[in-house]
Amino acid sequence: MKKTFLYLTSLLFISGVSSCIKEKYDEPPANGVDPDITVNFTIDSVKARSGGQNYQFQEELVISGVVVANDQSGNFYQNIIIQDSTGGISVRIDRTNLYTDYPVGRRVFIKLKGLWVGTFAGLYQLGGYINEANSVQPIPSSLVDRYILKGVWGLPVVPKAVTISQLNNSYQNTLIELNGVEFALTDVNKPYADGYNKNSVNRTLKDCSGGSIIVRTSGYAKFANSLTPTGNGKLIAVYSVFNNTGQLIIRDLNDVRLDSTRCGGTINPGNGILGIRQLYSGSDVVMPAGKKISGVVISDNENANFDPKNMAIQDSTGGIVVRFTANHNFSLGDLVEVDVSGLTLTTYNGLLEFINTPASACVKIGTGTVQPRIATVAEVLANADTWESTLITIQNASISGSGTTWSGTKQITDLTGSINHYTRSQATFSSTALPSGNKSFTGILGDFNGPQLQIRSLSDVQ
Asked: Residue 288 in contact with residue 273, Cβ under 8 Å?
């Protein structure tokens, strides 16, 4: 009898517990949550406490701001730039790969008690301590989580539209947008910085009213060896100062959209490879004497996914294929100059190229890098003529088609559409199995009776 009672009691207990269990748990918000903390100070007030001198906070003060720049491209090092409605400030942190914890668009909360604010060459910085040289140093890695609390991410980050003449100290560490600007003629088609010797470089940006400002790029930036564009347009950057001289720090090349006619209309971005492409209007064009083009080699002979006579080069305006009379020996990353005098510009199954190029017409003049343009399939298809023979990255896409290996024509598909991908049977990876799931595909945009992408090696798939 006692056993029966215990058995019935157990059943009732289990039944009672089951009735309290939710059938479906509440899911956390997709973009995270803000911590339960009260904000009682502003970024502008932080800078006011300093007044240009080092100052340590002793009160229980909290600021909040949205990350507008980080170290993802390498042009910022051990700091993030945050903004609130009153202004922006650089937060120095003794960690790398900060972008993984503090992506652009994430709100952060900073407990100020114990931290220092000061200036370096006139630029306000928030950090963890003062060194022997009396300068603000990064918050030690072991203390970062004590001072900085992570909030929601995915918040919109909208730069402030200004002109060069309007920039002043109140815009320090603010993400700004300039329109109708261009690099000075002496600085077009030049590397942003010296990525090989890791030296920072200043380039001059101008507007059509005579204003100018420095664009400073670190030699450690991923795009350091990329070439500055020749055109006019929009540029987004963080406004900074060094010894009272204003300067711009761009986050990556997606912030540079200088692809329109320059001031006065006398110099068109067509001076580069894009201009050469614009000469073709359906009929073969023979180049005049003295005409040269230069660009970085983006095709790869090593993995044989490109005809060994073909070389794809790209400058800041566009890309083009140079077809030699015999196999060439130029490598991925070579900066080359091609004397196209007397060469014929024509199309082959839709692909624009120079043909019958002798080896003597091309010389290596250095090395360089090209940052791929990130775009959706729909954007690639819409801009195929202009973007042909340039490096493209399509993210969050899958690849499929007849057969299970790379060989032949397949389709890369994202949420916006599909584009063909072609792999030569001679490619070193042609018999490799296709990847499953969504990937990032980087390749050269070509044309074979329609747009198609070609990766250079399996490392182009991430």
From this structure: no
**Rounded alpha-carbon distances, angstroms, from residue 60 to 91, 139, 145, 261:** 18, 17, 16, 53
pLDDT more than 90, % of the chain? 77
Torsional class of 189: left (φ above 0), alpha (ψ -120 to 50), beta (otherwise): left
Domain end among 343, 367, 391:
367
Residue 303 — left, alpha, or beta (φ > 0 → left; ψ -120 to 50 → alpha)?
alpha
| Each residue's pLDDT tens digit, 152-200 | 999 999 999 999 999 999 999 999 999 999 999 889 878 899 988 899 9
The answer as to whether 196 is a domain residue is yes
Determine, yes or no, domain membership for 22.
no
Same domain flag for 278 and 259: no
Which pair of tokens denotes residue 94? 């003794």
- 248 and 178 within one domain: yes
Mean pLDDT of 298-325: 95
Question: Which pair of structure tokens corresponds to residue 249?
Answer: 């720090």
CA distance 316 to 129: 42
Same domain for 355 and 400: no
Contacts for 361-366 with beta carbons within 8 Å, 24 or more apart?
362/311, 362/322, 362/324, 362/328, 362/330, 362/336, 362/337, 362/338, 363/336, 363/337, 364/330, 364/334, 364/335, 364/336, 365/294, 365/335, 365/336, 365/337, 366/334, 366/335
Per-residue model confidence (pLDDT) at position 30: 62
370's tokens = 């090209």
d(CA 179, CA 161): 8
> Which residues, at least 6 apart from 26, have a Cβ–Cβ distance to it below 8 Å?
none
CATH code of residue 316: 2.40.50.140
pLDDT confidence bin for 28, thresholds 50/70/90: low
Q: Give me the amino acid identity at 355.
A: I
Asked if residue 378 and residue 362 are part of one domain, the reply reads no
Please indicate, yes or no, whether residues 355 and 428 belong to a single structural domain of this protein: no
Q: Domain range spanning residue 68?
A: 43-150
In a domain, residue 217? The reply is yes
Out of 29-33, 67-71, 157-161, 378-382, least confident range: 29-33
Are both 227 and 314 inside the same structural domain? no
What number of other Cβ atoms are within 10 A of residue 433's Cβ? Answer: 10
Number of domains in the chain: 4
- Cα separation values, 141 from 70, 80, 146, 386, 394, Å: 16, 14, 10, 46, 35
pLDDT at position 338 is: 95
CATH code of 101's domain: 2.40.50
Do β-strands 319-324 and 285-286 pair in parallel, antiparallel, or remain unpaired?
unpaired
Q: Is 215 within a domain? A: yes
Same domain, 317 and 226: no
